[in-house]
Amino acid sequence: MNKKGWLILAAVLAAIGIFYLSTLRAGHPWGDDFSMYVHHAKNMVEGIPYQDTGYVYDRMFAVIGPRYYPPVYPLALAPIYALFGLNLTPMKVEVVIFFLAFLLVFALSFKRELSPIYLAGAVAIMGFNPAFWELKDDPTSDVLFLLLLYVSFLLIQRVYSPAQTKPPGVGYALLVGVLVALADGTRIVGVLIVPALILLDLWRTRRLRLFPWLVSGVAGLGYLAQTLAIPGPSGYWDQAVFFPRVFPINLHAYFNALVSLWANGYFTSVEITLFIVLFFLATVGAIARLRRGVTIYELYAIPYIALIIIWRANQGVRFLLPLIPIFVLDSLAGLEQIGRLAWRHAQAAQRIAAVGLLLALGLSYGGVYSRTGFGPFTSGVETPASQALFTYIRNAIPAGQVIVFTRPRALALYTGRPSVGYSTLENETFTINYSVALKARYFLVGPGDNYLRLLVKRYPADFSAVYQNSDFSLYRFLLP
């Protein structure tokens, strides 16, 4: 890529960074995955056992979240927590930095696949997409994992490029092994890099060289170190229940999530049309790319897609994140490929087609942003009602008293009191008996929590109101 191409890319990255940092939103909505990561970071800083978060885990309700998360992202959060405490804004800035680094890695990975202007377009398509933009306000492991995954891909793919005539050295293999270990220590699906690498080496060389063995060994040592440092099962595999009836449901949900990436906020027909165009272009681009040889990207994507389809709880766009960059790459590569074939001697037509696609995407993004709030989150952990509730619980509820709440991990982080979740699929008698068995002392009814609200109303003799504000009602559970 020439100097002009790098300048265009730098300008696009700078624009994305400014846009993200200038639109950071105060607070955090009630999804509480983030709180577990922050709590782990807090424990690291304060010298508390990593998994002691106050979240009362039960494998029956494993979909709420595992017992603990892998340690790499909390390790990245720990310096932020040490400097700023429970302040989410610096943590969000760190997410933005990770995302910009990922976009740069993406550009470095595919600078030979796309012309400079198309490459900058691919970066812009991802960077300004509202779904990616929303990630900046959620300090979870997704963006760091995306970065580590694509750095690992970049270094692995260089080993198998036509320009690489010598086998990689031991030092290079150890570096890749460390990156794979870090990816696996960020999200457990990072382990899929190992079989993908082994298959790639077999495919390309018809034998297994030392390189994949060294990478696998280092990654295995990383996993062993994590296991020894954090004793006890994480609980992830409690979610891996084999329910064949879930497969078509998940497949449909992820298809809809992929389509939703190109929403405009107003016209569904336009959204579907744009997706069809992109899918067609991606198909053309993928075929052209695969003719040059199978890569680590496809060999990772195949088992990853199979895993998210059979996984019990679908996560929408979040679980598609490792796949979206390749979809965008192939879409732009397909457009460029068609342009070369259809308008070989008409560069103006090629540019018009590219500008037309980017304009359609830009208008779609603008439509979504026109309906998006940019101010502080109006619900979640930092609203006045939530903060007042947390203060009351810290001051009035004795340590060790278990509270039943729909977002147990967030409550445990902000109050220091153990909390347990529940399932709205269970009947109320089960929830009562389950709470008795846990010796839960309080039930907290929050916004939209109709299940607990109705339960308390139907069993008034078992509960005594102790606190209430505009959003929450806290009840003492009168154990039999």
What do these coordinates show?
The protein is mostly helical and 480 residues long. The chain has a domain at 384-477. It is 61% helix and 4% strand. It contains 20 helices and 5 strands. It has helices at residues 3-22, 33-46, 72-84, 88-109, 116-127, 130-135, 142-159, 170-184, 193-205, 210-229, 246-260, 268-290, 296-310, 317-320, 324-342, 347-370, 384-396, 408-415, 428-438, 450-458, and strands spanning 403-404, 419-420, 442-445, 463-468, 473-477. It has a 5-stranded mixed sheet. Strand 1, helix 18 (408-415) and strand 2 (419-420) form a beta-alpha-beta unit. Helix 7 (142-159) packs antiparallel against helix 8 (170-184) and helix 12 (268-290) packs across helix 15. 40% of the residues are buried. The mean pLDDT is 92.
